[in-house]
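Entry 14. Structure prediction run on the chain below.
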Amino acid sequence: MWLSLRGGQIAQHQKAPARDGLPLCPSESRLRAIVKELASPAYEGRRGAGGKRAGDYLISQFRQLKLEPLFQGEFGQSVPGKEPDTVIGRNVGGMLRGSDPALRDQWVIVAAHFDHLGVRNGRLYPGADDNASGVAMMLEVARSVVERGALPKRSMMFIGFDLEEVGLFGSRYFVAHSPIPLDRVVLFITADMISRALGGVCEKHVFVMGTEHAPALRPWIEKAAQGRPLAVGLLGSDLLVLNRSDYGPFRTRSIPFLFFTTGENPRYHTPQDTPETLDYRKLTEISQLIDQVVVDAVSAPSVPRWQSNPDNPFSEALTIREVLGVMAKNSEKLKIGSMSLFLINSTLHLLDEVAARGSITPEERTRVIQAARVVLFVVF
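Output returned:
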């Protein structure tokens, strides 16, 4: 599936109704305010004491939404260190119990990591895109769900993970010490960096990984993307080789997941990842897209189950073709070397043949994925 603008024009979509003057879908002004808050110097790059303050901020937001504490009456889940009686981090979570007796034991999780790199050598790493943007999405989706009035049929968790930047420790600990049996989690949704552009050049693109293991999720994404000024590309998570964000521990446990990202950009992991540099319209559109997927996930009669053998859509090849084409056109800006450019062009030649034919063989996909991995590693 490859979803984009028709004729380059921004299609109009109907906004959700408002209650008490507040939009029920994720609001740009609220997303902006959350990012500005979490990326401010007071949170010290959300590590150490700043990380504790960030967790406290999320708890205050969960309380305002009247979510129930997720961890045996507490909003926080301490993550212990290797030494006895040491704590190295804290996950925070709230929950909303479903209304349908037949479905309330099934859980949908919306999550984002709130930690970042802290202060290094006296320089603040604000982490506006990474990952205040994802946290803002998570909080706004939670608000949308609560303020719609009718409870979701399935139960929901909203989680802020700590320690993602140090080996996914927070989400790994959660999965190993889940407050509910993991077989009741029917869908895990997370986002990491959703307010910029891959390489600073793929301005309309947002990438979604995970549907290869639950192909029936694709119509939900397609419906939610209709009329939005986004190019939504579905990719297999094997493109990244390693688990690069908090979907990893859930993927390892064969839990259906969706991972949304706009990819690495020139400000990634730098002190220049500041709130005023984000594309808030894009953040808003992606947050609203995720919100609409959540609506389906909590109300559909059934949720797609995990499929062990990956089903990679043909559109994945078209997505990679599109991205490599953008990179080739911006080779000077991206400072792409001659060898990398040769690899990009040769892969584009193969993908042109694939597109003309309308199908891709497993061997061709392997070649394309291997080439894309090399290009991503070398260029970004």
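Residues 315-379 form one domain.
Filed with the rest of this week's runs.
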